[in-house]
Give the backbone structure.
Amino acid sequence: MGPVLSNEIFVAYLLNKRMNSMAHKILEGKRGIIFGALNDQSIAWKAAELCHQAGASIVLSNAPIALRMGEINKLAEACNNAPVIGADVTNMDDLKNLFEKSMEHFGGKIDFILHSVGMSMNIRKGNTYTGLNHEFQHKTLDISAMSLHRVCQTAYELDAMNDWGSIVALTYIAAQRVFPDYNEMADAKALLESIARSFGYHFGVRNKVRINTVSQSPTRTTAGSGVKGFDGFINYAEKMSPLGNASAEDCAAYCVSLFSDYTRMVTMQNLFHDGGFSFTGVTPAVIERMED
């Protein structure tokens, strides 16, 4: 039996193995826009790194205020000095500018888009679902869900996507099941998934562009950690998932596969990426904890 590796060394080993697996460059020659990379905890950040490793050229975008708060320039430098173009996803003019500048930078159309955008003022302010501030709720739906429609509509109207392109948006199982402290974000994710299906039909008919949502495990990101009781729930999900919780790096790798030509016929789907949590009723580990 070989030496026992510490958890930190083992995680580093897995990441290095995944990076090496990108050596065959499954995104070679592809060009994409990644929304939402805030810091190195975010799924969008990990996805940008893996897309770069897989051979893609990328443009990074986030809200102007997020660009000031985050460390995105460090990511851009690591991704072959990728352009960083600020855009408010609730503003059609900003999005039009983003797509036009991206196509100018790439010298052509776009192959993939990652929508990793979400924000709830009600959660930040501690408002319960039964006591929502509805002005905040409008902003949540606008930023977290309707923004996907705006992104797709802008790309559609500008004819900015190459045929057989791919658009992926990140979601969560609270769109289908009740998680009380996930609050109004559950409604936003349900709307997000509906938009992916509806726009997926129209974009598919015209350009064979596919649109999917990825329903990810609870993940220790800046946004996820803001949900009440997050630490307890992430431990519960770990015990409920046969494979354990999917990490941000795992999710990034899944997104890369959805951007690649290996998934050309997958569209309008909500794809659970949660270690089996979504289809597990109960586990011995959870029963044991309840009996304690």
